[in-house]
Amino acid sequence: MHDFYLFCFVKVECGDNEVHRDLQATLMTNYTVSLRPVKDTTDTVKVGFRFTPTISVLAEHEQHLHLRGMMKLTWEDYRLSWQPDEYDGILETRLPLTSQGEELIWRPELVLNESVSTDFASFIPDTTAVVVKHTGKIYWYTLANMQSFCSVSVRNYPFENKLAI
pTM for the whole thing? Predict the structure, then answer.
């Protein structure tokens, strides 16, 4: 018999809630969600992407690959930056992505090619928030539930490798 211990460390920033509310209100003033977060329209937005699957199921008969896991996206939005000394040293805040179905913050558009669902963006919940650093760097952590087509041939089973693209 083995004993397992799970330790969870949570960073909690104590600060004046009124200062946080003022910061969030200032950040969202005149923010236009439909504009890409670039100063020059010819610039590209660099998006970091990491997906860590926790459950993966290959349904050979249906030829579907089902993945669930944690997704992390990062990008920069200069419009959501501030000087910490103007807001009691606050280095980060959380902002909602949507409110009552309306987008509040620009986010990259994600599409799952070969999706089983006809709603290509349905694998990402809309009810998440993002962490915004004072530099304008945005961290979006969310759960993803994806299902895509994956052709399966069992001709050489069990001596083959499977690759779902």
Answer: 0.72
